[in-house]
Write a sequence for this structure.
């Protein structure tokens, strides 16, 4: 198993400079709460049926701006040290729409009471359709426009590793592995590489503190993202600890974007969230992006186990 991890990591590093020109991964600000879209290993959580969904309207007020819908469900079984998930992404940009259903499996390589290491794999279909009938050219019959685009249907796969301890989350992942080295048109999927870590302090009675850093590489495009958030808690005086109430966060990307995040625990197992993106790129200053997130979890009887010692705390 150690040999497999080493080989996979070397392959990951060796392709960092692969040139790919194609469609980017979906843009989601609430990925700091759920990383499954780009790291399948992250579903190896505690014993819950976990349901997640978010919807994003990017660049509000701009015709043809991206609209994203993301739906996920996952389940971790401590007896098998395995997690199983399913997801569906719909990403519409102008005349182009992507539908990307995936099945995910994750396995905990280590299950110590203080730390864990997980490996995950997602497989599915990447499909893209272009409604060329909606073209509105200045000149009819403009030869620079393709009035007919073949629907694209390709197999797809993501892979990832994630380490978790009481105070650290770190991960490496890769999306659209089958697109490595592809030079297809800009409507095709493209290989992305992710590396991140999140520092967390959850021992205080009134607040949890989080600070994260993420690096994303796609061909010659590199994006660095920094996140900081605080989660407020109500000290119940009970042995199981404080009850989490709501959290506030800020994110900054080197693409000149800043995000404000708000999360609210409606009940012990139901959370909603909102994120607002503001771009500082010239021409987009007045066109922010809005995102709404829903999380729901259903506890299982098998949740009474050592790896689930923080089962009452919300995921990170």
């Amino acid at each position: 198993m150690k040999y497999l991890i080493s080989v996979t990591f070397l392959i990951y590093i060796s392709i960092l400079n692969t040139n790919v020109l194609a469609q980017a991964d979906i843009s989601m600000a609430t990925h700091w709460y759920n990383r499954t879209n780009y790291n399948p290993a992250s579903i190896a959580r505690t014993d819950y049926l976990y349901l997640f969904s978010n919807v994003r309207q990017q660049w509000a007020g701009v015709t043809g701006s991206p609209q994203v819908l993301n739906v996920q469900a996952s389940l971790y079984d401590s007896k098998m040290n395995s997690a199983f998930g399913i997801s569906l992404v719909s990403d519409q940009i102008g005349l182009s729409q992507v539908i990307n259903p995936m099945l995910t499996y994750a396995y905990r390589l280590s299950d110590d009471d203080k730390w864990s290491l997980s490996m995950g794999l997602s497989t599915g279909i990447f499909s893209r359709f272009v409604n060329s009938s909606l073209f509105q050219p200045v000149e009819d019959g403009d030869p620079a426009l393709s009035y007919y685009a073949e629907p694209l249907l390709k197999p797809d796969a993501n892979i990832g590793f994630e380490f978790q301890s009481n105070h650290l989350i770190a991960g490496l992942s890769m999306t659209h592995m089958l697109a490595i080295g592809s030079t297809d048109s800009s409507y095709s999927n493209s290989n992305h590489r992710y590396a991140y870590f999140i520092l967390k302090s959850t021992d205080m009675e009134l607040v949890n503190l989080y600070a994260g850093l993420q690096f994303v590489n796609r061909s010659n495009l590199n994006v660095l993202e920094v996140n900081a958030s605080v989660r407020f808690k109500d000290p119940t005086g009970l042995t199981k600890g404080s009850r989490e109430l709501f959290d506030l966060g800020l994110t900054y990307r080197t693409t000149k974007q800043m995000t404000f995040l708000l999360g609210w625990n409606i009940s012990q197992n139901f959370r909603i969230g909102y994120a607002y993106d503001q771009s500082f790129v010239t021409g987009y200053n007045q066109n922010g992006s809005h995102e709404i997130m829903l999380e729901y979890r259903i506890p299982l009887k098998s949740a009474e186990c050592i790896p689930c010692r923080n089962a009452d705390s919300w995921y990170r």
Summary: The chain has one helix and 14 strands. Residues 1-22, 303-311 have pLDDT under 50 and may be disordered. The two ends are 26 Å apart (CA to CA).
